[in-house]
Amino acid sequence: MEVGDALATILKGSGLGHKLTPSGAYLIVDAQDQSTGDVATARAVAPTQDTTATQAAPEEPAPDIVVIGTAGAGTRRQDAAFAVTTIDSTMAQRLGTASTAEVLRAVPGVSTESSGGKTGANIFVRGYPSGGDAEYVTFQTQGVPFFPPPTLSFLENTQLIRIDETIQRVEAVRGGTGALFSNGQPGLTVNLVQREGKQTPAGLLKLSGTDFGEFRVDSYVSGPINDSTTYMVGGYYSTSRGIRDAQFEAERGGQITGNIRHDFDKGSILLFGRYLDDRGQWLLPIPVVQDGDKIREYPGFDAGTGTLVGRDTRISVRNDGSRVDLADGRSAKTYNLGGNFDYELGSGITVRDRGSWMEGDADTIGLVPGGTPPITAAAYAAGKGGTIGSLTYATGGAAASPNTAVVEAGLWSVEKHIQAFVNDFALEWKSGGNTLTGGVYYTRYKSRDRWNLGNSMLLTAEPNARRLNLTLADGRIVTRDGFSGGSTFKVNARYTGEDVAGYAVDELQITDKLRIDGGVRYQHHSVDGTLENLAGTVPAAGADGNPLTLYDNGDAQLNGTFRTIRYRGDAWSWTGGVNYDLTRQIGAFVRYSRGNSFPFFDNLRDGIDVAPQVDSYEGGVKVSAGIANLYATLFHNTFDGLATTVITSGAPIASIGGAKATGVEFEGQLRPFAGFTLSGSATYLDAKYRDFFTDGGLTDLTGNRVQRQPKWQWRVTPAYDLELGGDTKAGVYATIGYVGDRFSDVQNAQVLPGYYKLDAGATLDLTPQIQFQVIGDNLTDEIGLTEGNPRTLGSQGSGTILARPIVGRSIRFAAAFKF
Questions:
Q1: Residue 123 CA, distance from chain mean position
Q2: Where is the TonB-dependent receptor plug domain (predicted)?
Q3: Long-range contacts at 782-785 (CB < 8 A, ≥ 24 apart)
Q4: CB-based burial label for 266 (10 Å; 0-12, 13-18, 19+)
C-alpha cells in the first residue's frame, strides 16, 4: 500500500488523521485539524522510519492545497507550475486586516491601496496597467466568482464580501492557468475558502475594540447534523465613527455566512449562503504638504485621522432636489447563494459543478475634493472675478474671515443594483499519470446604474469641514446652502453582460519528477445596455433662470432620450507549463500563457471597445525544507489593447495603448529554531507604457512608468511563540513594510514618495479556549501617500496638495473564546 493509504487504514476509527508536510514527513493529528493546518500537537513520522522509534518534532505547516487555477480538485503548492500564495486564518489574524483587500498585503506582486476605507480598494497586479479599482483581480468564494466583472466604475469585488472568522484560508493565484478557468482572469484570482463543520462540534465568540471607538463581535458555530452531514454558520457585526472621525456613525454593518456539506460514498455536495449589509466611509484625498519626497501634515489637519466629512456636511439637498446622507458611505447589501457538487462516476471520471447567484445593492456616496488645494476665501472670490461681499457659515449664519482657508469638494453618489448568476461545470478523467479536464463556464450579470457626480460645496479646509455661503460684492451669489455648483456628469443606465466559455486542460505526470500541462479556452463575451442621454445644452442661467445665482448655472441634465450599446466579442486563451522536482524539497517551473479581458459596461458607455490581451512568461524555484519554505518567481508580461480611465472635472477621460512589465517576486518563511519564524515577501517591478496615448491620442506616454505601482516593495515579519507552562502560550510579532515611490498619474507628474510602515502585535492563550490579542497598526504614525489627486491632470506642484494618506496609528484589542 501507499504510505498515505496505509496510515488511513491504521488510523480509521481512532479520531486521528494524517497530513503530508512539505518536507515529506507525515503528521499524525486530530482528525478535525486535518484541513485547517492548525496543528496543536503532532509527531513527525518519516515514511521510511519505524514509527516506534520516532520522537516529537517541531511543528511544520500543512501543505497548501490550491483549488483555484488548477484542474480538478486542486494541487499541492509545491507541485504547482505557477505562483500561488495561501494565507491561513492565523496569518490573516496577525495581519490585523481592517478590509478584505488588506489581506493581499502578504501576496508578492500585488499592490494594495486600502487607504480609501474598508471597501472600495485599488488593487494592482504585476504591472497590469489600470487607473484604479481592481480591474485584473477576481474574488471567489468556494472556487466560484460571486460577481464576474472584476471592476465596474466605483465597484470592485472587495466591496461585496468581508473576511471574518468564517474564512478558513485565502488562496491567491497570480497569472498561471487562471486565464483558462472560471472567468478567465489573467491577473490575480483570489479564493476565500469557508470553514466547514466537522464531526466534533466547535465554535468561537470574539469581541474586539479599538482606541478610536470601534466595537466588533465575530462568531461561528459548527458541527455534525448526522454521520455524513455537517454545518457551519457565523459572521460579524461592527460599528464605529471611523478612524477618520466623521462625527457620526460612519461605519456600521455585518455579514452572516453559513454552509452545509453532505458526503456521499463517491462524492459530496456543499451548499452555502451569505448575507452582507455593511457600509463604511469613503476616504478621499485631504490636504497635505509635499516638499520633494517629504510629506508633512497640513496645519491643523491630522494626516492619519482627519477627514473633511462631518456633522455639517452629513446631510445635504442638491440642486436637483435629491437628498444625500454621507452616512450611507460606500456600502453593500447583497444576498449570495451557491453550491459545489463533486461525484465520481467511475472509470476514473469525476463530475464537478460550481454555481453561485448574487443580487443586491452596492452604492458609493462620498465628499470628493476638487482639483484645487486650499486657498483663502479672498483668493477663491478673486477666482470668480470679484471680491467678497459676504462670507458666512451655512449653519448658524455667523460671519467668516476672508482669510479663512477654503476648499471645494463634490457630493458624489453612484447607486448600483447588481445581479449575477455563475456556473462552472467540468468533467475530469484520470488515467495513470494523466488528468484531462474539460468544462463549460457560463455567467449572466446585470447592473442598474444611477450616477450624479459634481455638486461641489465650498468648505473650510479643516477636519470635519463646515459649509460656507459666499456672495460677491457685485451681487452675484456663489453658493446656496454651501453648494457652489451642480451636477457635472449623470448616468441613468441598465446593462446586461453574458459570457460563455469552454476549456480543456491536460496534466501529464511523465516521470516522478517531471509534469507538464497545457490547455485552451474559448470565450464569447456579449454586452447590451440602455443609457439615457445627457442634454446637449443646458440653461446658462440655471434652473432658476437667474444668471446671478452661480451655483446652478450649467448643471448637467439627462434629456429623456435613450441610446443603446451592443458588443459581441470572442477570444482564445491558452497556456503551457512544466514543473520539475529536482528533489522532493526543491522544484522549478516555467510557464507561458495568453490571457484576455473584455470591455465592460463603463468602457462601452464611453465608446471604448478595446479588448485587453496579455502574454505572460514566468518561471520559478520552490524550496520546502524542514526549516524553510522559499519561493522565487521571475515574470515578464506584455499588454495590448489597454484602456485606463480617470474622472476629471466630473467626466471620464481615457488613455489607450499597451505596456510591458518585468519583475521578480520573493516569498518565504524561515524556522531556524523552535517557536521562531521569519516570514516575508518582496517584489521588484519594472513596468512601462508602450504605444500608450492620452488626450484623445495627442500625447504619447511611451516609456512612462505604469501608474501607482512601485519598483520595490517588501515586508518582513518576525514572530516568536513560546510555551508558558501548562496550556498557556504567548506570541509576539511585528511587520515592517516598505512601498517605493510611484506616480499617481499616467503622465508621471504626481510623485508619491516611498514610505515605511510598522505594525506589531501579541497574543496570549490562557487556555486552548481563551485567547487575548492586541494589534498595533502604523505604530510610527507614518504619512504614506497611496493616491495623489486623480481629479487633477499633471503635477500639483510643491507645497499644499490634495492626496490620500494611509490611516494613522491605531490599536485593536480582542478577546476570543473557543468552544
A1: 6
A2: 77-187
A3: 782/755, 782/756, 782/757, 782/758, 782/806, 783/288, 783/295, 783/296, 783/297, 783/303, 783/304, 783/755, 784/295, 784/739, 784/755, 784/756, 784/757, 785/288, 785/295, 785/744, 785/752, 785/753, 785/755
A4: exposed
Residue 78 has phi, psi (to 5 degrees) of -65, -20
Region 333-347: mean pLDDT is 95
Measured CA to CA, the distance from residue 507 to residue 70 in angstroms comes to 10
Q: Please provide residue 8's backbone torsions phi and psi, each rounded to the nearest 5 degrees.
A: -60, -40
Determine the Cα–Cα distance for residues 692 and 580; give it in Å rounded to an integer: 38
- Alpha-carbon distance of 485 to 483, in angstroms, equals 6
Q: What whole-number distance in Å separates Cα of residue 504 and Cα of residue 517?
A: 11
653-679 burial, b for 16+ CB within 10 Å, e for fewer? bbbbbbbbbbbbbbbbbebeeeeebeb
Task: Name the band, by pLDDT with cuts 50, 70 and 90, for residue 684.
Answer: very high
Give the global pTM: 0.88
Beta-carbon neighbour count of residue 614 at 10 Å? 25
Q: Reduced to 3 states, what is the DSSP secondary structure of residue 283?
A: coil
Q: Does residue 414 surpass a pLDDT of 50?
A: yes
Residue 53 reports pLDDT greater than 60: no
Q: What is the pLDDT of residue 116?
A: 86
> In sequence order, what E strands does 177-314 have?
188-194, 202-210, 215-226, 229-240, 251-263, 267-280, 286-291, 294-297
Instruction: Name the grid cell of 275.
Output: 448575507
Question: Can you tell me whether residue 105 is helix, strand or coil?
Answer: helix
Backbone angles phi, psi at 769, to 5 degrees: -100, -25
pLDDT in tens, 398-409: 999 999 999 999
472-498 in b/e form (b: 16+ CB < 10 A) is beeebbbbbebbbbbbbbbbbbbbebb
- Between CA 266 and CA 271, with CA 270 as vertex, the angle to 5 degrees is 145
Contact 105, 683 (CB under 8 A): no
Identify the three-state secondary structure at position 348: coil
Convert the pLDDT of each residue in 66-107 to its tens digit. Answer: 655 555 556 666 677 788 888 887 787 777 667 888 888 889
Mean per-residue pLDDT over the chain, rounded: 89
| Cα gap 469→151, rounded to integer Å | 38
- Report the distance separating Cα 356 and Cα 369, nearest Å: 38
